[in-house]
Amino acid sequence: AENLFGEQHGCQPMKSRFPIKWPLGLDVLHKQWLANADKRLLAYQQPFLDQLGPNLEIKIMGSIGYTTYDPPNVEAVLSSRFDGMSFARVVGIYIAHTRYRLLSRH
């Protein structure tokens, strides 16, 4: 369904994938949980974003998620319909984009 949606809307396939080592991406989930508890989630994620670029795919617990902080992609997401997309995911995309813009000024 996602591939068909992407093809219908001219989306390019994701070239970068968040590296996972354990089955179902439990290593990533575990490390992010610990980093979040220590209030250092963004610090944990930043090296991955720096290395992988602004658009990436992550597979955790059998689900596929997409992350972008690429300004044209953020604009496209925010100006499109949100059928099948939760508000939390949309807000997360906006926050990631805003964070990137703020950090890139320094």
Write a structural description.
The protein is mostly helical and 106 residues long. Helices cover 53% and strands 11% of the residues. The protein contains five helices and two strands, in the order αααββαα. Strands 1-2 form a two-stranded antiparallel sheet. 8% of the residues are buried.
Helices and strands in order:
Elements (H helix, E strand, L loop, with lengths): L1 H7 L17 H12 L3 H12 L2 E6 L2 E6 L2 H8 L8 H17 L3
Antiparallel strand pairs: 1-2
Concise account of the structure shown:
The protein has about 110 residues and is mainly α. It has five helices and two strands; from the N terminus they run αααββαα.
Q: What labels describe this entry?
A:
mainly alpha, two-stranded antiparallel sheet, single chain, 106 residues, 11% strand, 2 strands, 53% helix, globular
Largest sheet, strands/sense/barrel: 2 strands, antiparallel
Per the principal axes of the C-alpha atoms, what is the gross shape? globular
Summed over residues and divided by their number, the pLDDT gives a mean of: 77
Radius of gyration: 14 Å
Order of strands, main sheet, comes to: 1-2
Structural class: mainly alpha
How many DSSP E strands?
2
Q: Topology as H/E string?
A: HHHEEHH
Number of helices: 5
Which stretches are low in confidence, meaning pLDDT under 50 for 5 or more residues running? Answer: none
For the record, give the distance between the C-alpha atoms at the N and C termini, rounded to a whole number: 40 Å
The level of helicity is 40-55%
Strand content: 5-15%
